[in-house]
Amino acid sequence: MKTIEWIGSIFGLLGAFLLATNTRVSAYGWFAFLIANFAMIAFAARSKHYGLLTQQLGFMATSALGIYRSGLF
Questions:
Q1: What is the pLDDT of residue 4?
Q2: Which of 28, 32, 34, 41 sits at a 20 to 30 Å CA gap from 19?
Q3: What's the total number of domains in the chain?
Q4: Transmembrane segments in this chain: where (predicted)?
Q5: pLDDT at residue 73 above 90?
């Protein structure tokens, strides 16, 4: 369980860093966010943290929108 939580945290930080660099690779931060969202959704569901689960489902939608708007998919 801790591994999933750490994967979510690390990829969330990576996504934020990539977007903040405002470089040609910044758009890949959305994929890092998406990985973080999946990990945190799994963590929240297993831990029965339904507020966090709801938040991550919303963030997953914004990550998907970011991927679409950046032209990566």
A1: 98
A2: 41
A3: 1
A4: 27-45
A5: no
Range of the domain at 13: 2-69
Both tokens assigned to 6: 């750490």
| Residue/partner pairs of 36-42 with CB below 8 Å, 24 or more apart | 36/7, 36/8, 36/9, 36/10, 36/11, 36/12, 37/8, 37/63, 39/4, 39/5, 39/7, 39/8, 39/11, 40/4, 40/5, 40/8, 40/12, 42/4
pLDDT tens sequence across 19-48:
999 999 999 999 999 999 999 999 999 999
pTM of structure? 0.94
